[in-house]
Specification:
Chain lengths: 254, 150
C-alpha cells in the first residue's frame, strides 16, 4: 500500500495518517423480512486509529441506515456494543482497525447464545435473568456505625477488586460454549458478579449465593475453556473467579 | 386475588438437600484424572518401553504380570477409574448436546450400560484370571502351563 505521499522523502514532518478501504461483512437479520440471517458486505474508508464502532457508524450514517446495533457511551464503559468480531467477542468501541488484518474482510455478527432480535442486537433478558438470580447486591445484617460507612481494610477490598470491574456487556457469557448449549447455565458474568459479593467482607449472605451456584446448572458446568477470560473487555480473570467460587463451595464457606 | 412474590424469591428453587452429585462428579473427575495420569503412563512404560518393549506383549506376558497381585490391583484400579471417568465425561457431553429428553435419557442409559458391563467383565477377569485352569484340555492351554506344577 504505497501512496505518493509515503514515497516522497519527507524528513522531520510527520507523515499524514493514511486512510484505506476496509471491507466489513456483517451478519444482517431483519425479523420483518428475513427468515434466516445473511451476510452482507460494506466497503468503508477507515484510519488505523478508528474503531469497529466508527466503521459501523459510517455504514449506518452514509450507506445503509437500516443497520441496527446497540451503543451508548462508545468508550468501553457502558457495555452496550459487545459483538463477535472476526469470531471473537469484543466491544466494537474498543477494537481498533489497526489491530485487525485489514487485508482480509472483517466479520461482524451479534453475540451468540442469546435470541437474535435484529442485525447486531440480541435479547439480553436471559442474561440479566441469571444475573438477578445470584442476588448481586450487598446484604449486610449489621448496621453501619451511626453516620459512618462500613470500614473495610485494603486487603479485604483487594480480595474482590477484579470482579468489581464487570460492565455486564455479556461478552464472556456469550463466548461460553456451555452457555451456547441450552442456556440453562448461569454463565460467567453471573458468577463473576456473585464472586464480587461472596468475597466482600461487608456482605453476610455469601452462603446463600454459594448454595445457588452449587446447583446442577451452577459452577460445576464450567469446563475451564477460558473463552470468557479471553473475551472480557475489562481484563477480568473470569475463569479464575469461577474457580475461586468452586473452591469456596468445596470449603463450605467463602 | 394476586399475591406479590416476596422480595429476593429465587426464580429457580434452591437445591434440595441430599448428595450433590454434580459437585462430587466434578471432584471425582479431577482426582481420578491425576491418578490416571500415573496409572496409565506407568502401564504404558512397563508394557511398551521397559524390557523387550512391545514385542514382549503376549498372553504369557499378561499372565506373568498378573501372577503378582500388585499388577492386578493396578489394572483393576485403572479399569474402574478410567471407565467411570470416561462415562461421566460422555454424560456431560450428552447433557450439553442432546436437548431432546428421550434421546438424552437413551444415550445416558447406553453409556451407563457400557460402563457397568465393562467394569463387571473387567473386574471378573482381573480377579479370577488363571492362565492354566485345571481340567482344561491341554490343546487350549498355552505352552508354559506344562512346565508349571500345580
Amino acid at each position: 500500500m504505497s501512496t505518493a505521499v509515503a514515497d516522497a522523502p519527507a524528513p522531520e514532518a510527520p507523515a499524514p495518517i493514511k486512510s484505506f478501504v476496509v471491507t466489513l461483512i456483517i451478519r444482517r437479520f431483519d425479523p420483518d423480512v428475513d427468515s434466516e440471517p445473511h451476510w452482507q458486505d460494506y466497503d468503508v474508508e477507515m484510519y488505523p486509529t478508528d474503531r469497529i464502532l466508527d466503521a459501523l457508524h459510517k455504514i449506518k450514517w452514509e450507506q445503509d441506515g437500516s443497520l441496527t446495533f446497540r451503543r451508548s457511551c462508545a468508550h468501553g464503559v457502558c457495555g452496550s456494543d459487545a459483538m463477535r468480531i472476526n469470531g471473537r467477542n469484543r466491544l466494537a468501541c474498543k477494537t481498533l482497525i489497526k489491530d485487525l488484518d485489514v487485508q482480509k474482510p472483517i466479520y461482524v455478527e451479534a453475540i451468540k447464545g442469546l435470541p437474535l432480535e435484529k442485525d447486531l442486537v440480541v435479547d439480553m433478558d436471559p442474561f440479566f435473568e441469571s444475573y438477578r438470580e445470584v442476588q448481586p447486591f450487598l446484604q449486610a445484617n449489621s448496621a453501619p456505625p451511626e453516620g459512618k460507612e462500613r470500614i473495610q481494610s485494603v486487603a479485604d477490598r483487594a480480595r474482590f477488586d477484579d470482579t468489581t470491574k464487570c460492565i455486564l456487556c455479556a461478552a464472556c457469557t456469550s463466548s461460553c460454549p456451555v452457555f451456547w448449549t441450552d442456556g440453562q447455565y448461569f454463565g460467567p458474568a453471573a458468577i463473576v458478579n456473585a464472586h464480587r459479593f461472596i468475597f466482600d467482607s461487608r456482605d453476610d449472605e455469601a452462603q446463600v449465593r454459594l448454595d445457588i451456584l452449587n446447583e446442577k446448572e451452577g459452577v460445576w458446568r464450567c469446563r475451564t475453556t477460558f473463552n470468557c477470560t479471553d473475551a472480557c473487555p475489562r481484563g477480568i480473570q473470569v475463569t479464575q473467579a469461577i474457580a475461586e467460587v468452586k473452591q469456596a463451595i468445596m470449603r463450605g464457606h467463602r | 386475588m394476586t399475591t406479590i412474590e416476596a422480595p429476593r424469591t429465587p426464580s429457580r428453587p434452591a437445591r434440595s438437600k441430599g448428595v450433590n452429585w454434580e459437585k462430587w462428579g466434578w471432584l471425582y473427575m479431577r482426582a481420578s484424572g491425576v491418578l490416571l495420569v500415573v496409572l496409565i503412563f506407568g502401564h504404558l512404560i512397563v508394557n511398551l518401553v521397559l524390557g523387550e518393549g512391545i514385542k514382549a506383549v503376549d498372553f504369557g506376558f499378561v499372565a506373568g504380570k498378573w501372577a503378582d497381585p500388585f499388577w492386578r490391583i493396578w489394572d483393576g484400579l485403572m479399569l474402574w477409574l478410567a471407565l467411570i471417568h470416561g462415562g461421566n465425561g460422555m454424560r456431560t457431553i450428552v447433557n450439553d448436546y442432546a436437548h431432546n429428553r428421550t434421546i438424552n435419557r437413551t444415550l445416558k442409559l447406553l453409556i451407563l450400560a457400557a460402563v457397568v458391563i465393562l467394569i463387571l467383565l473387567g473386574t471378573y477377569t482381573v480377579t479370577f484370571f488363571d492362565p492354566c485352569p485345571s481340567g482344561a484340555p491341554a490343546n487350549l492351554l498355552p505352552d508354559f502351563c506344562s512346565t508349571i506344577t500345580k
